[in-house]
Amino acid sequence: MTGKASSVGKNSASKAGVPDATDSMPLRYGDDPYVWACWLYYEDGKTQGDIAEIMGISRATVNSYLADARSRGIVNISLEPSRLSSLSIAQELKRHFGLHDCLVVPSDDGSRPLIDRLGTAGAQAIARLLKSGDTLAVAWGRTVLAVAEQANVPNLQDVTIVQATGGTRALFAYTPELCASAFANVTGGRLINITAPAIVSAPEVREILLREPLVEDQFATLAKANKAIFGVASLRPNSTVHSSGFFESVSLQDYLAKNAVGVLAGRFIDTKGLPVAGPLDDRTIGISLDMLKSIGLRIAVAGGFDKVPAILAALRGGYINVLITDAATGRGILNADGVTEFDQKAQQRPKTDNSIALPSSYRTHIKKFLNNPDDVVDEMLEGIVKAHASHITPIKGSNRALMARTGPRLGKVGLVIGGGTGHEPSFLGYVGKGLADAVAIGNIFSSPPPTPILECAKASSGGEGVLFVYGNYAGDVMNFEMAAEMAQEQKIDVRTVLTTDDISSSPIEDREGRRGVAGNFFIFKIAGAACDKGLSLDACETVTRKANDRTFTMGVALEPCSLPQTRRHNFEIGPDDIEFGMGIHGERGVTREKMMSADEITDRVMDRIFSEMKPVAGDRVAVLINSFGATPLMELYILFRRVEQRLSAKDIKIEANWVGHYCTSLDMVGASISILHLDQELTDMLYHPCDTFALKVG
C-alpha cells in the first residue's frame, strides 16, 4: 500500500516539481494529497504555512493544491445554509422595498434571545453607519436599548444624540430618556433630551409646552437629525406601547377599529403605512411621521413573527430605508407582500413559460360541498345546532351565540370562549357540562363582534363572575375587551386569559405575544374543569394561566387551505416544500423547508418543544396530535408514534392523549403537535368529567 501511495504521489508531485507528500499522509485521505491539503485548510483551519510543514511541501505547492482542488471540483466553497438563506432574504428585502441596506440575522436554535441577536446586529450596523458630525434621533424600546448596550463606536467627534419622543412615567429600563442616554454614552456624543412628557393631558397643554423656548430648541435639534434608529411595535397586548403609559387614558380599540397594525415612535400606522388618526394625535410630543420620513438614514431594528404586519406597514409607508431583522421575520414580510421565491440562483436561471406546461386536467379551484358561499357559516351553524341539540342551544335565537344546555348555574364561575369559524370542532365543539358554558362565533377566521360575546357572558353568569378564554389575536382582543367592559357595566365581573401556546410565532422572551392555536384544547379543558368544580374566579383564572404557560404547540403544513368564497389556495407551497410554524388562519408558516420524513418533521417539532419545556425524567404530559383539516388519521398516528418514542426516551409518561381533528384550518393539509406539561393539579383538572359533542371525559 505504501508503494502504491508513493507512486501516485510522485506522479502528482512531479507535475508540480515538489517533493512527494504522500508517504506521511494519514490513511483517511487515501492517496490523494489534494484531499489532505483541503481538509487541513477548510476543516481543521490550518494556515498554508502550517499545512506546508505538516505535509512536508512548500507553501507554493499548498497554494497550488488548493487552487487545483477547486478547479477539479474536489472542493465546493459554500456558505452555511442558514447564513446563505439570511443573505438571500436580505438581498430580496433590499431589492423589493428599495432599501439603502438590510441586515438579516440567521435563524438559530433559540438558545439566545432574539432581542440580543438583533441588538448585536444593530450594534454592528451603527458602528458602520454612524459618522462624526451626525445627529442621531433615538426612539425607545427593548430592541433599541439592546443595540445601545452592545454597541461600540469609538473615535467619533461632534456626534449629537437627540431623544425622538417625550418621556414616560414607566419604570422599565428602555424609556426614551434611557435609550437616548445609552447611545450618548457609547458614542461619546452630546445628549439632547426632550424635557416634556410623550403624552400630555390635553391639546392645550401640548401647545403650551411646544412654545417653551427650551423645548423649541430641543425640537430644532431633532429637526436637524440626519439619521434615526427606532423599533417597530405591534399592537399585541404584550407590546411595549401598553406599558409605556400611552394607553392610560385612551383605549387601543380606538386605533384597532381604524385598522392600525403598528406603532413607530408613538405614532400609529395602518397596513399601507398611512398615519392612523386618533385621540392621541393632539396630545403627543415627539417626532412626527413626516419628520421621520424626512431623515436621510432611517434604521429600523425589529423582529419576531408577530411583528410582520407592523414592519411590512412601515416598509410600505417608506419610513425605513435600513432594516435589521431576523430570517424568519424577513421571510414572513416578503411572503406577506407576495414574494414567495427569492433564491438568488433560481432568479438567475432563464425563466420558462409555465403556462404551456400545464396539463389539460389542471384545475385552479378546489371542489367543495357548497350552496351559496356567502351563506356557508350560517348554514354550517344551522346544521350543528340541529345535529347537537342535546348539547347546545342558541342564545336569544342567534346561532352566533350558543350556550350549553347543561353547565351554566348559580354559584358557578361562567366560562366563555370564542373565535372565528373554519376551525371546527373548535370552538363550538367544546361547549357543554364541565367545559365552556357559552361560545361566541365569528365569520371564517374572523373574531365575533362584541354583542354576541356580551350575550354569552350574561347567559353564563351565575353570580360568581365570568372567565373569558380566547386566542391572542388583535380582533379577538379588541372585541372581547369591549364585551368585557359592557359586562362590567352590567355588574358582571369578567377576567380574561389569552392563549399563547404557539411557540413558533414569537421568541421565548416574547411569550405573551404568541398566538393561541391548537393548544386551546388543553387550556379550555382545564378552565372548564376549574369552573365546574366551583373554584373562585381568582382560582379559575390562576389555573387557566398555568395551563397556558405549560402548553407548547407547533404546526407544520404540507398544503395551504382554501376559502369557500374563492375556492383557491391562500398561497402556494411548492411540491417539494413544507412550512413550519403554521397558524390556524390560513396564513403562511414561519419558515419553509424541503419535504422530509414524518419522523424528521416530528423530531424538529419535539426538539423545539423540549428546548422550552425543559422536562426531566419522570415528568408527565398530555399529548394532542391535531389535523389541520385534510390530514387523515393514518398519518396522525404515524406522528404520534414518533412523539411517544421521543417522550419515552426521556422517561416522560404520557398521562393522556388525543389524536384527530380538534382545531382545524378549513382544508389545510398539515398537523400540529401540542404538549401539556402536567403537574398534579392540572392532571386532576384534565380528568375532570366533561360532556360536549366534540369531547367527552369520564
Unreliable segments (pLDDT under 50, ≥5 consecutive)? 1-20, 344-358
From the spread of the alpha carbons, the general shape counts as globular
**Remind me, CATH topology of the largest domain?**
Rossmann fold
Give the structural class.
alpha/beta
Side by side, the strands of the main sheet go 1-10-9-5-2-3-4
Q: How would you state the average pLDDT, rounded?
A: 87
Q: What is the total domain count? A: 4
Main beta-sheet annotation: 7 strands, parallel
The helix content, as a percent range, equals 25-40%
Q: How much of the residues is beta strand, in percent?
A: 15-25%
CATH class bucket of the largest domain = Alpha Beta
Q: Give the CATH architecture of the largest domain.
A: 3-Layer(aba) Sandwich
Number of contiguous helices: 24
- End-to-end span in angstroms? 74 Å
Radius of gyration: 30 Å
> How many strand units?
24
Report what the structure shows.
This is Dihydroxyacetone kinase subunit DhaK. The protein has 698 residues and is of the alpha/beta class. It folds into four domains: 2-71; 92-336, 3-Layer(aba) Sandwich (Rossmann fold), CATH 3.40.50; 373-547, 3-Layer(aba) Sandwich (Rossmann fold); 551-697, Hypothetical Protein Tm841, Chain: A,domain 3. Helices cover 38% and strands 18% of the residues. It is built from 24 helices and 24 strands. It has a seven-stranded parallel sheet with strand order 1-10-9-5-2-3-4, sandwiched between helices. A six-stranded mixed sheet has the order 11-12-14-13-15-16, with helices on both faces. Strands 19-18-17-22-20-21 form a six-stranded mixed sheet. α8 (176-187) links the parallel β3 and β4. α18 (450-460) crosses α19 (474-489), α20 (520-532) runs antiparallel to α21 (537-549) and α22 packs across α23. The radius of gyration is 30 Å and the shape is globular. The termini are far apart. Residues 1-20 and 344-358 have low confidence and may be disordered.
